Amino acid sequence: MTDEPLLRVRSISKFYGNRIGCSDISFDLYPGEVLAVVGESGSGKTTLLNCLSTRLLPTSGSVSYRMRDGLFHDLYRMSEAERRFLMRTDWGFVHQNPSDGLRMTVSAGANVGERLMAVGQRHYGDIRATATDWLGRVEISADRIDDQPRAFSGGMRQRLQIARNLVTGPRLVFMDEPTGGLDVSVQARLLDLLRGLVHELGLSAIVVTHDLAVARLLSHRMIVMKDGHVVESGLTDRVLDDPQAPYTQLLVSSILQV
Amino acid sequence: MNAHAEAIAQYNFAYLDEQTKRMIRRAILKAIAIPGYQVPFASREMPMPYGWGTGGVQVTASVIGPQDVLKVIDQGADDTTNAVSIRAFFQKVAQVSVTTHTGEATIIQTRHRIPEEPLKEGQVLVYQVPIPEPLRFLEPRETETRKMHALEEYGLMHVKLYEDIAQHGHIATTFAYPVKVEGRYVMDPSPTPKFDNPKMHMSKALQLFGAGREKRIYAIPPYTHVESLDFDDHPFEVQRFEEPCALCGAHGVYLDEVVLDDRGGRMFVCSDTDHCEERRAEGHRGHLSGEEAAT
Q: Which EC main class describes this enzyme (chain B) (predicted)?
């Protein structure tokens, strides 16, 4: 593991007219690290995530990413072709709603295989073997490989989306509320799976969530956002066990106790 | 007065006005310069409904000259409605001579077939194209498909072929089979059977594609590489027929199935009528031709 960060974020701001999306956000993300971005809805979490993943152009600031050659590249200075190539090879993006991240009308196997074919794999047998392997790793049985995601449950769709993203061995994965809308037992298994995969593959991840339990389980570090600003950041356990900012204290104390 | 009225009643040569032809010729030149790239053009209303070859007719009208000899085929046949009416149209508005013989034609407008007889240098093959975008049914957004062409993101095309193999055990696409032109653009060869795909490769004739409703023109210049997409372990194959043409006995040509009665009787005949007639004139006979083979 190197001491150099994978992603360097400097003073990212995004304004929608006069309204603030997110303002002056800086941090570094290191290889193998999982960063959680928490906050209530409307706090700018998703805006920030979209800016980082180049799905949205920020008003100001810069994001640089350390490519496999070890050099930092400014994401917004890259050509669109390079950016899109990065997005389907070295990166993953897990949407809250699986139907945004999956092709609902093609089979599960093709969903997983699409990225492989996009980077030039032309051997059907190999693609299918890789797809089968990945379905197994996300606990989808191999006999569902030719079914369309429409026939899958919510939890299965989300797992399929994860497999589709991880198949090219990305180094950085963005997740937008990966467990949103799932019931708790499915959520628990998905989190377990994600934790295993992140650990096994040495992924870096930025996870946006409003669920502090998800943040605690998955992330090493977290940043807390409110009204587009970062109110607190630090190691996850420290922030959750000893919140400093008044808003974080409120957030932590709002967790329902069962 | 009479002379004046007559002058007004006349069409410009080949129906389209000269400015329109210039515009379409520019699009054609651009299309030839970038093989396989879909060039937008200001498609005109033609005196025929969309889907009947308005794109092909506009391309033909823009390249045709008084010396040209025109052949029009529809699914390989010279005598079907679409072919007959387009041929009559150009006889009327361009006074060109027409033919049904592939070898004699300088311009061949086609709907969904490439003639069996190999094309020569100097010939132009004009295709009528309903949907020019090969990615259309995989990605409905035009903005996105254009971007995918620009960035050469063609992984999705293989997703379709993957689905075919997953569902049917082989690539089940039999027509409009996607091709890659000169190693760059993925192109829809219009709904020709994939049987004809190999004929596009290194063709000596210029191939022009016109889509009137979709307002796109694209082209394959002569001697251009045209490669049908496939997988390493599922290579591209053309259709094979078990029996020869029932009329002329030809092997290795594309056949149409003709139902003869309501008791399952059927015959397979050449889809290229001109090819079949020429072979029969040469004395070839199939088993249903009703005549004995010559000599």
A: lyase
